[in-house]
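G., before I forget:
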Amino acid sequence: MAGASKEGFSGIVNLTPHKIALCHLIQYFAPAAHSSLPIPFKSVSQHNRLGLFLFSLTRACNDFVEPSLDELITQFKAVGVGGFEYDWFVDWLIEDLTSRLSALSSPDDLYNFFEKLRGILSPAEVTNMEDEQCFLDPSSHLGVFIRCCILAFSILTFEGVCHLLSNMAAYCNSTDPMYGLPEEDAFNTDPVLQESHEYHELNRASDKYIHDFEAGSSAGESSSFHIQAGRPLYGVPDKLFLRSKWQIQGYLNEQADLLERHAGSFRFNTFEATLKHLQKMAPDMHHVKYLRYLNNLYNDDYLSALDNLHCYFDYSAGMEGIFTGSSAPPVSGIQVGRYESALLCLGIMHTRFGHSKQALEALTEAVRISQQNNDDSCLTYTLAAMCDLLSKIGICSTSGIIGSQYSLGLGTPLSTQQQLLVLLKRSLKRAESLKLTCLVAFNRLALAGFYLKHVNRPLLSFGPKASIKLRTNPTHVCKELRLSSYLLSEFGSDGLSLPNDGGTFSTAWLKNLEKLINSPTSFNGKRTNDYDTFHFTSQPNPIPGSVLQLAGASYLLRATSWELYGSAPLVRSNALIYATCFADSASSSELSLAYCKLIQHLAVFKGYKEAFIALKLAEEKFSSVSKSHIHLLKFQLLHERALHRGQLKLAQQVCDELGILASSITGVDLELKTEASIRLARTLLAANQFSQAAAVACSLFCECYKFNLHVENATILLLLAEIHKKSGNAVLGLSYALASLSFCRTFNLDLLEASTTLTIAELWLSLGRSHAKRASNLVHQTLPMILGHGGLELRARANIAFVKCHLCDPSFSVSDDAEMVLDPLRQAAEDLETLEFHEMAAEAFYLAAVVYDALGRAEEREAAAASFKNHIVALENPGSGSEDEQRNL
Amino acid sequence: MGSKESYRNELRSAIRQLGDRCLYSASKWAGELLVGIDQDQPRSSAIAGKATPSSSARPHHQQEHLHRDGSSFRRSRSRPGGIASTPSPVEDEIDDGADYYLLAKSYFDCKEYRRAAHVLRTQTSKKSIFLRCYALYLAGEKRKEEEMIELEGPLGRSEVCNGELTHLERELSALRRSGAIDAFCLYLYGIVLRDKGCESLACSVLVESVNSYPWNWSAWSELQGLCTTLDILRSLNLKNHWMKDFFLANAYQELKMYNEALAKYEYLLGIFRFSDYIQAQIATAKYSLRDFDEAEIIFEELLRIDPYRVDSMDIYSNLLYAKESFSSLSCLAHRVFLTDKYRPESCCIIANYYSLKGLHEKSVVYFRRALKLNRKYLSAWTLMGHEYVEMKNTPAAIDAYRRAVDINPRDYRAWYGLGQTYEMMNMPFYALYYFRRSAFLQPTDARLWIAMGQCYESVPLQMLEEAIKCYARAANCNDREGIALHQLAKLHSILGRSEQAAFYYKKDLERMEAEDRQGPNMIEACFFLPGTAKPRRGLKRQRCTAHGSWIILARFLLIFYMVYTLSYLQEKETAKSLLRGLKMAQSGFPSVEFEHFGP
């Protein structure tokens, strides 16, 4: 607490009526030693509640202006009553408080009040705690607050006292319902003014502070102020009082956090208006400009973001330290300025807007200036930002972009990937040595992501050649992921205790209180349990949100990595862990990603019906968020289903929509673009336009090769093999499939490998009966993987291939062991019907009919044939069910 | 336009009316104009006025008109928009109100504004209403100024607003609605609206005011302050009156349309031949057009006529600074110091002097003082930024420039200063943003494009193509120092485009020859040109025959001359070899073979 108070009140508090009201309340809480009458608290818990309330009020950062007397009284009532019925004591206290406040009518009253206030601080030596007297420890939080107020008053000039007095009058009058001038109405109905647009802006000023977010409970804050015109003597306009600097900073930090996490759900204009207002009230609070920058950034307003960014750093010279850990002590004498952080921010901004070249220029300059100014932490952050950029945006060549300091010094130009690895490792090393824990975790995650998708090749290609295994190494990924989670435990150990919780607990406590006031039903519901209202459901969280977010990100990355390696249950469990344990601190986009993974899992294993139900729920949950993930998922599901049902027009339409989602800048949104192209090729394949499909796939392969997207290449090669398989060119298909297989092995894509193997088996089968044995072996190889982890479609395909192998095998006779083929066929047909995959379902039923025919079971044969016919008809008349999907689009 | 006499009559009655309403600044301006009218019909008052010239005023600051005394005549409101309508003096109505008005005016003149307003609380004549409202407004302004100092908290001084605004707005809008508002109250209403942030409404109210009473210069200058873009200016619906020309000229000047402004002023000078105000404005425009010599002559003349003048003298000091006239600047500083040392302009002039002397710390002290006197003194912020740059205190410099930019986002000098500071800190990429902003505002200034080009060309960025584009822009914008052409040639030769490089080297040489300049650039150009002679000759043979080679020959001789007289030693050897080649070539003249002597 000592640290908090040091930070909180280091600047002299500017005395406001609200603070004086607090001083009064503290007097009730801890009356002076020689006070005439004791305050009759009903119970100890009531007394404690008041203490907690006061503690929270002096620390909370839920707003930048102080509450009006009205609000204070409402809150106080809620705390005092605490769920119980009418309490005469609380009413008496409020009445006493207002009368005491309005009794302060001359400067001398104020002097006397502060003189008396000294009495409640216990002398440090005397610690006799007899007769239940509650002394205020001068070094406690409230004690420091009182001392600061007294100090602030004693250094106040007479003018200051006069201002305080007139402010007091305005503050007290704000509760008086009778106050308000009749002319006020005349003014409001002024037709000339109302015509003008500006007048509305003026009027909006009164309610423009009402900004609310719809991003979940933690963000659900709304604050409104009652503005009353009070002109006691010289026409004091609407009075709002700023909180202390530290509280405003806390407020801004909180808002910045919300902005970053729930980008897009902020109402741009209202928040901008709030910020402008704050800037007017506190022009030297440069942090506001940073918030304006963030607001612009997350609302994709490039020009304003750029302007505000430059403005912020021009004023603050980068000395406000947005990057925690940049802890260079201020050099005495001339202020140097740390403009490298400005460059870092500029780079990050350009990265977000997808301007890779500018971003690299800015970050390179940031590296240079950090080195020049010996700003190690900024350098580390810059390197991390650079890695982020390189991994996010496809850049084919780094030549001339990053300074020579990152070449190996041997003149060999590095590929982008090698460069990325070098940067990542350097950044990690620096972060470790500087003890930037969060950055270490971030870098480890980035490294894990890198190892996941890139073969770790030696940087130097000369010297004694060790045998190089060109494969990714999942253990590396695992290791980095595990290490990144150490972040949490480090925060648990005392080595890295929190610098300051920044009043978050108090803020949350007050917010919950407000909720309680606003919804009387929960108020009544909590009646029975005094303890609940005391806590207002808020627990101080020992781990800050940003740390939790990082820790959560590791689970999300785990899910992604298992997705690639091909373990469906692990994907699901990790996504579930993320969605349940880290939802509070997660950003909306990450959370929606986790939901997407879960829904995808549903679609693959349970069919579309369930997936769409879940999707609807997710859409509702993220309705206000920029829902790129959810949006994308919807298109994916729609496309998949359309392909299965044979609705090719719809599929084509979805494909086009998907392509629009991606940014038009080359190198940006690569994954999305790849996805769109793959889907286009698949649509063409389904329409039997083989040469076009092959052309799309080929050009996509080239593109991916250029940007080093090798994991995607495995999929594309498999797709090419499928195209050739379907077009009847099995030999050519085999070569593509084998290439895909080697890619799969290199990157340990086990499930995809199984799928490729299956395709190879199918290709062999299509080459003729003589290859049935070989095909059968291959299918048997894949079965454990596919039956363990594969989705409905893959399993059905494997089953059918299995049956086909047996049917082709001359040594196999149906009549001997009919169940050997019938059981897989039944299974496949069931799965495919769930998926509404007409084409393959028809194939399964056809095979079944053939088998039944051979067995002479005519009735069952007819049933299978009828099903076959149904599916074929459905495939040929796909248009019927597409209206609702059309509407969905 | 009416006759000069009618101008005089208009102005005379306007001065009385304005003074009677305590609009002293406007009254002063009109008075100066009155004595500035050509003396075809000399009048005693005009001559008397000329003998004791008061300082002409361009009301920089809106509060300026608060602090002067005036007469106590009462005039009727003039008819609106009358071009030749000379407002005829109307005798004071004899009523009780007039006496109260006299008392209120005396209070006002003693700066007891609230008392003045209080005396007039029951009066209903338009004049009384105006004075009461005006007094209240000024009382509010005074209180605001005081509060600004009182309320300076740890988060900076919050924007205090005039507490009377709401009340005044209510009253004046009611008056306007009922139609019982005169031009002066409209002017006040306009100011109130502007202070409240309703700028477009303020604009239309002020237009109404100047249309019905055009002689109130304060209203015009308030209106000018609201015309931040040419579009707003053009959209104003103003009646024709000769005062409109003054307004337009001033507005053009503030919008950096100096040539248009000059044209207007030259025209007005035909009528108001002796107006100091016009002269000062012309000098300012000429200074802005970098026509230093003419501007200096005008300023000197102004000072001779009006030795106690402070207005516009900061511009004069800037001019002297640019011309590095130490002694003149010191004299000017001394003079204004004796006249009124607590004027922002005076402080700025002194600061300029110290800056010229290289005493930057002292200079900053005086700039700070100027800014204390007027926080919105734009050029002082920018100039102080320059001083901080000299002192290598970059954060302070950036802060100062940034404040200038925030006061007026169209101030390209401050943007340029910001860019330069960041460039100095070795952050060319970051600086580009600022240069871009400044070049956007002043696209015809070659210096800005050159600065941008230099950033692109700098070692860390090495974006030569972009640099070439910038230099090309600069070369098209009348680049005085000739940096652009040389850089263009150099960059093209670096990129291996000898054709273009030769073109620009040649252009650069021609320029240097035209300006009779010499220097290392010239040698570089001369060395380059013969080297490219071969490919060029291959393309167009006749170019390299007789005439062309004579030029080149002449250049060689020039190099020879320069090398041996100016001792550019490193070039000596190259020159020698060239000369040897030249001798050989002379024998084979006129079909010179230049391929023997590459540089």
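The mean pLDDT of chain A is 75. Chain A touches chain B through 59 residues (CB under 8 Å).

More on Monday.
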